[in-house]
Amino acid sequence: MARSPIFLERRGYRLRRMMDAMRFLPLLGLGLWMVPLLWPVSETTAQGDLDPMPLSMALQYIFGIWALLVLAAWGLWRHTREQATKDGVPSAEAD
After folding, report:
1. From the CA atom positions of the chain, what is the Rg in Å?
2. Are the beta carbons of 39 and 58 closer than 8 angstroms?
């Protein structure tokens, strides 16, 4: 009776980890988009007045996170496509 190997092939393992990273991107984006909720608002404290974060900065931050998520998804997609074609999985562009 043949025993199956304990460890996965390196390429298959990397492909699965890339797919896991692609699945994690929306959660990462949601967490990063929540950061502006932690920024100070105009309140008076014992130390004095806190300057509120301008809305323009919050919008730049949110757009920057969105752009980074798009670039990360594109990079991961491209890398997984290359890995899949090396493993012999046919791609949609080959048709």
Report:
1. 22
2. yes
